[in-house]
Amino acid sequence: MATGDRLVAPPLWPLEARLAALLPDLLVFRKPRGSEPELATAQGVLLGVHVTGFTALMDRFSLSCKSEHDMDKLAHIFSYYISDIVEHVLCFGGDILNITGNVLLALWTVEQNQLSDIITLVAKCSLEIQEKFGIYHTREGQDLQLKIGLSAGRISQVIVGDEQRQYLLVIGRDVDGVQLAQRLAQANEIVLSWNCWKLCEQYMFEVEIMREDEAVKLRDMRISDPFDFDEHFDKCLDYLPHYRTSADILRTALELDPDSALEQTLRKHIMKSLLKKIDEGQPMEYISEFRTVTTVLVSLELHKTEWMLHLCHLIQEAALYISTVIEKGGGQLSRIFMFDKGCMFLCVFGLPGDKKPDECAHALESSFSIFSFCWENLAETKLVSISITNGPVFCGMVGAIARHEYTVIGPKVSLLARMITAYPGLVSCDEVTYLRSMLPAYNFKKLPEKMMKNISNPEKMYEYLGHRRCIMFGKRHLARERNQNHPLLDREKELEAFQMAQQRCLHLKKGQAVLYEGGKGYGKSQLLAEINFLAQKEGHRGLPVTTVTFIRVLPLKLKEADSKQCFYAIQTLMAIFFEIDTCPACYRQECLFKQLHGMVEEPLHCLFNDLFFVKFPLSFRVSHMDDLARQKKVKACFFQVLQKAVRETPLIFLIDEAQYMDAASWEFLGTLLSSVPIIMVMTLTPTFTLCGWAQHFLQSPQAILVPISKLAETSLLRMACWELGVVSIPQELQIYLFRRCFGNPLYCEVLCQDLLSKNILLFHDLQKEEEETSKWETLSANAMKSTMYSISPASSEDQDLYVCTVKDDVNLDTVLLPPLLKEIAVNQLDQLNPEEQLLVKCAAVIGHSFHIDLLQHLLPGWSESKLLQVLRALVDIHVLCWCSKSQELPAEPILVPSSIEIIEQTKEKRKPDTASPLRLREGLSLLQTEDLEFGVPLLREAAWELWPKAQQIVFSSRQNHPEVRRPSQMNTTEEEFLDQVNRRLAQTNLEKDMLTTKPCHCDEILKLVLSPLTQHCLVIGETTCAFYYLLEAAAASLDLSDNYMAFFYLRKASSLLGQPSAFSYLKKHKVKICQFEEATFCRLRSEVCFNMGQITLAKKLARQALRLLKRSFPWTWFGVIFQTFLEKYWRSCSQIQPLNNTSENKKKLAVLQQRVHCLSLLWQLYNLEATPSSRRFACLATLMQKNSAKEFASEAQVVSTYVALSQLSQNMGDREKWLHCEQMAVQKSTLCWFSREGLLATAQLMQALAYTKLCLGHLDFSIKLGFQAHEICRHLKKPALENLILSVLFRSAFLKKKFDLCVHVLESQWALISQGHDVLGLACFYSACLDLLLYGEGWLYRPFGECLHFIQHYEHSCILTSDFNVMLGVHASLAMWFAQDSQWNLFEHHFSRARQLVKRTNASLFGSHGFVRFLECHVLMLQKIPEGVFKHTPSETHRQALKYIKEFFSRCVTCPVYHQWVSELKASVMRYGRKESTRPFDTCFTRIWIEGKFLEENNSFEGNLGIQRFVRVADVKENKDEEEIQEYIC
């Protein structure tokens, strides 16, 4: 039952049956006789089964660090083992009295003349138990064996307790006899007590007499004719009235009719926390938990007494007091059991529903109270020993279905009895209890180390001496010291409150108090440390140097125990003020005398004797004062001293944890605040109830209460980087911290330290140059370096910079919480009622976010109304919260065009109050959905860890997309296509119409379905399902442009498959997957590698995926020629039968779709290189993609393929094919507004058209198309495509010199890029910022230093080094900037980098733009060579410049927008060659830009478009720029 693999109780059992299953028949069928203690005597046979080796097994587990995991295994072993024994005893008619630790006690109650027959029955039962279960082999190497003892005779049954809670004990000489027989037995032996031997049919047994011990060892039974055991068994059944009557149920007690009186009687014997769960109807297997508890064992060794009734009253008195004290401290008395010398009481603090803060302290104080009571009030007590331990245990059901008990199992529980034996007569505790109690050290005494049975590594033990007032003062220093290397984060408002209080105190000459209120871990102590530093800093802005040069700060840290000592806080503060808190006791009086001299009359010095532990002579004046007068005089003296002190030096009291201040100290400080100009700064925890004087203090007009808020996510991220010593952490670690911390700095600090201690992180040198790798397994560091940094790297060149990654075999979702944080979270969980606790625990199984329908499957017997009612209650107290979900628009303001009109000329100036150039669309209010997430930090993780590792309900959720009818294909021209787009955009409400049939749910599905299912399958070991869901999660992440998370999921999938073999024929995966899944796995990894700049590996994986999809891609040029021939002629001539979407063809359609993806990847990979060989491979890939798309029979796929062919042709400089493929894409387009696939193809086509018009120089049209494409794309939630569209928009607006439009486009681009980790997108962004800096006529979006900083830290990234086009523009722009600043060394560096890249670029827009920038640099060098400013660059001639220009015109024929500009540069070079150039640099290149001649339209490209042109004006003023933008943007 501990793990759920045994039988579970039927859900339809009545309440009486569930209660009876927890109790012996002795209680179920008894008749209450009167007031407690009840004493009854009967004859019976006792069977004691002791499981040996169990303590040693627990000791082995206790040496492991995985305590919760080990408790799970331990509970599984014991429950599985003991349940079989319990069922066997029940089959023989035994009544299980209790299961205590590793001992089971059973009773057969009969008449005295029936004892001999029953002893024979029990002996037979014992022999069968030894035969079947005598030895149990565990995987850990520790065998479990049985020792069995039998006794018979007179048994006394005692019930002690009160009307609320009762306990059953069996006592007597024969009970001691069964315990003695157990001890005498060795493993696999059965021993009978001497009395049992005398009462049995001795001739029936083969025995060995143990004369010295007065016991008998049972060997076997003599079963011979005419004796028949079956007949004897039937005879014995007549003696057992409550033996089962049905073969289906082992106990008659489970079939009783409902009886309210019986129910009330049985409830008294069950713990309250367990009763709440039973009343709630929770299944027994849901009740078991693994949690940290504090256990207390009270051992009373009693004097021998002949009066049984007197002994019962003694136990009754002890039980009542112990139960009362323990419950008052938050614990429960679990059970009472007898031993040969006395009685033991097992108490537990922290059971489910009972967790309280300061649990260990309450246990120690309760134990000492019990210890004192027993010694003083129980006359028959010979020895009192109490032991206390704290640690993880299994709390749950152990036994069989018909009879089980709620118990606690764990190494710390077994340690209790060992401590009682090792340290008798003491209140002893283990080191964990000592440390977690947070009680003063002087309340403890370290005990000598002693060896304990089956405990291989005993820890330190301490004696608790009780709460004592020690002759010492409070702590002078605060709990936290200021960290000089890490500044305080997000505490500007809190520090401002302190600074304002300082100023008011100085100017108004009145006391000021600032009280900071915040939860545990919010950084209150760190804030006080910062204030302590600022207050003592000379010349602090709050205190001018001319006024004050020194401030005296008195810091004090309080603890809970301090609240019980009257005037303790003021006593300690004044001891610090007089500087006697740290001086030796022998010099204390002398030091205090010097401090008081001149401020307090000498006859009054003796007033401080008791307060400061000094011995001034008692004066006549003081001797005539009563206690009240002395107290008033002491306070008056303190006021007098402090008033005099503040006239010389300002005073600041810093009191941490002020909620622990005593009432007398609050009263004194309240009076002090109103009479002395002193500053008090305190911290409070809001969960504590303050006394009346504290409330009065807070209501003072001179006191201000400042709440401390949680840290922002960015600040939390910086803190994590500081704790780990890195500049960036991986995204999965960010999610791990965000979900567990919720802005709490203590949680972040503890979690980071825990990760370091568990050694699950790998650290990589950031400054080590990134290299391309050919192995997927070595990509972790590269993937981390390809993301944005969390904090800015230090500027020091000597400092090593690191990033960290998580080890491949580590699943952060299953990393256990540190004990400190788990205790905090479990304490919060136990504050909920049982219904809410169960719901939270079930929700935790699903994940951080969950759906209501998924949750209801885990809640047995819950109606929908009950589920919603409990959910609503949890949402009201913010334990859960509704997930934010918006399918309409992103919450961030988005650039939205209102109306775009192409005008003939520049319009007149408009009024200032007209519509602004841009409209920011606000995020819509979010509706509540059926998806929820946890709103309290750590609660989900702690609740999940409470569950035993058992079989859970396996979730499977597959989203079936309905088929969408595609309109028939229509041929259309570009003009018709654009007219249809315009009409559709004008007539359609995109938010309510365009996407209603197929909204994008990728983010929600990934968050609420795929991620929880993946986590669930990984936990329960369903690796095949986990692999599938990991592929789905990776595909969804790529669709959302989150490349790092895609890599994260694929890396997990790789770890499931195992290490690959060097030989393909030896490859054998640990997980069984089909060929299609393996192909998909390769294709996804190829796409991730492509996004990471790992080009070689991406090609290899794409080819491997194609091969698995039964489509090969050639390696050689001959293969390319042959394959091209096949694709052009044989495939085009063959009749391709388009596949429909019927069930039999779905697999073929899936294979074709993966082929299209792989071929698309291949042409993009080969397109990165400008070599003839790469061009041939790229052309072949696009051709194969086109044929596969036709076979796929998808208009959207065909359109996307022609767009790809068009882009490739433009990059290769094939103008004719470029325009032809674009026109084909327009003709094939159908503008399918009812399909997301069709919308995506339309957006891609619109982007391609905007790109084309930009390259051709039709900038107005390009801007219009760009906005239309953006309008569609932003609803599709395709960040990569949206970023590309914004890049085209920027370039068009930049060449049009609409610089304020450029800035707003960059703002939208930054909002898009900064949400992810797109390094290449950032490079394009900063390249655009550099262009704006160089030619933007004073416009600025990002400073040059930021742009340069980004390039310097990412220039060796494989992502950037693989894209020559972008980097050419970046380095050329940097060279131009340094030329303007006359930094010629830096100019040479970046120019040489650009010269290395220029031959490797293509004719794309970015490549052409970079080429132009490079030519500008080249012409500049020709002008500056005569001045001798270049030292490292070989001299450039005008012939070389003309050669580059000629190469530009031959290569970039598909980008005529720059031709006029380059022609002007060519003219400059030719003039320079003829020695005609005398113009300075600052006008040479800007004249073309100002006049705008390079933007003249080529009418031949747009004859059929009917688009009117702008009239260029040489000097366009800024207000006219804004006016023209009105025509484009709303």
Features:
single chain; 1530 residues; 29 strands; disordered N terminus; 9-stranded mixed beta sheet; flat; 8-stranded mixed beta sheet; alpha+beta
Draw up the topology in text.
Layout: H1 15-20, H2 25-28, E1 38-52, H3 54-62, H4 67-91, E2 95-100, E3 103-110, H5 115-133, E4 135-136, E5 144-161, E6 166-171, H6 173-184, E7 189-193, H7 194-199, E8 205-210, E9 215-221, H8 229-237, H9 260-267, H10 272-279, H11 284-287, E10 289-302, H12 308-328, E11 331-339, E12 342-349, H13 359-377, E13 381-399, E14 404-409, H14 411-422, E15 427-430, H15 431-437, E16 444-446, E17 461-464, H16 492-508, E18 512-517, H17 524-536, E19 552-557, H18 568-577, H19 585-596, H20 609-612, H21 620-623, H22 627-648, E20 651-656, H23 663-675, E21 679-684, H24 692-698, E22 703-707, H25 713-724, H26 731-741, H27 745-757, E23 761-765, H28 780-785, E24 802-806, H29 819-829, H30 834-846, E25 849-851, H31 852-856, H32 864-876, E26 880-882, E27 895-896, E28 919-920, E29 931-934, H33 939-946, H34 974-987, H35 990-994, H36 1002-1020, H37 1023-1039, H38 1043-1057, H39 1075-1091, H40 1095-1108, H41 1117-1133, H42 1146-1167, H43 1172-1192, H44 1195-1212, H45 1215-1228, H46 1236-1256, H47 1259-1276, H48 1279-1295, H49 1299-1313, H50 1319-1335, H51 1344-1354, ...
Parallel strand pairs: 5-7, 13-15, 18-21, 18-22, 19-20, 20-21
Antiparallel strand pairs: 1-3, 1-5, 2-3, 4-5, 5-6, 7-9, 8-9, 10-12, 10-13, 11-12, 13-14, 15-17, 16-17, 23-24, 25-29, 26-29, 27-28
